[in-house]
Amino acid sequence: MHVFVTGGSGLTGPAVVAELIAAGHTVTGLARSDAAAARLESLGATPHPGSLDDLDSLRAGAEAADGVLHMAFGGDFGDPGDMMRRDRTAIETLGRVLAHSGKPFVSTSGTLVMPAGRESTERDEPDTAGLAAFRIAGERACLDFAGQGVRASVVRLAPSVHGPGDYGFLGMLVGTARKTGKSAYVGDGANRWPAVHRLDSAALFRLALEAAPAGSVLHGAAENVPFRSIAETIGRGLDLPVVSLTPDEAAGHYASPFMATVYGFDAPVSSAFTRELLGWSPTGPDLLDDIQHGDYL
Question: What is the pTM of this model?
Answer without folding.
Answer: 0.96
